[in-house]
Design a protein that fits this description.
By secondary structure, this protein is mainly α. The protein contains seven helices and two strands; from the N terminus they run H-H-E-E-H-H-H-H-H.
Length: about 190
């Protein structure tokens, strides 16, 4: 894709909610990725009255770096913003590996939840006024919701309810994706 197409696709998929994207920064990032050997120029297009657009593809090294980064970030619980990005890119890893990484994350979240619950129990036993522990109560609720969500996702992944990898996407869905992508480029 050319950078403008990448930007449109990211915004259309609402990925700008996960990572702040500005036009200037994005084009600079594409240049830096190319200079680092993670993207490669594959052609220059010119359609109608539009300016020339350089098209890029991810290199093998680029794929490897994405996969390694997702492997590092997916199980972590101390970097929520990076987890959201890793989750959006988890499809770059095999299903079983994603299940393993998310299972590791679930164990860490569950341990953190247990610690929050123990802390709340201690504060309640000491009759600490609720106004001083509302942050811990909120954190406990969020952790509990995360465990529940992870349990559901892991169940759907292991039951193969979610198509994973291009080979598992139904042909009619692939055709819709191709048509959608073509509509973005015209």
């Amino acid at each position: 894709m050319h950078p403008y197409e990448m930007l449109r696709l990211l915004r259309q998929r609402r990925k700008d909610r996960v990572v702040a994207i500005s036009n200037g920064t994005f084009y600079h990032t594409v240049s830096r990725l190319e200079a680092a050997g993670l993207l490669t120029e594959v052609g220059v297009d010119r359609g109608g009255n539009r300016p020339e657009r350089t098209t890029y593809a991810l290199t093998a090294q680029g794929y490897d770096i994405v996969a390694d980064w997702v492997r590092r970030e997916l199980p972590r619980i101390d970097r929520p913003a990076q987890f959201r990005v890793a989750l959006t890119e988890a499809h770059n890893l095999p299903r079983d590996e994603v299940v393993d990484l998310l299972t590791a994350r679930r164990a860490l979240v569950a341990a953190d939840l247990a610690a929050h619950r123990a802390s709340l129990a201690r504060t309640h036993s000491k009759e600490v006024p609720a106004q001083f522990v509302i942050d811990i109560e909120r954190a406990e609720a969020i952790l509990a919701a995360d465990v529940t969500w992870l349990d559901g996702l892991l169940l759907r992944l292991t039951a193969r309810e979610i198509a994973w990898g291009w080979s598992e996407i139904p042909p009619d869905t692939l055709e819709k994706l191709r048509a959608h992508r073509e509509a973005l480029t015209t």
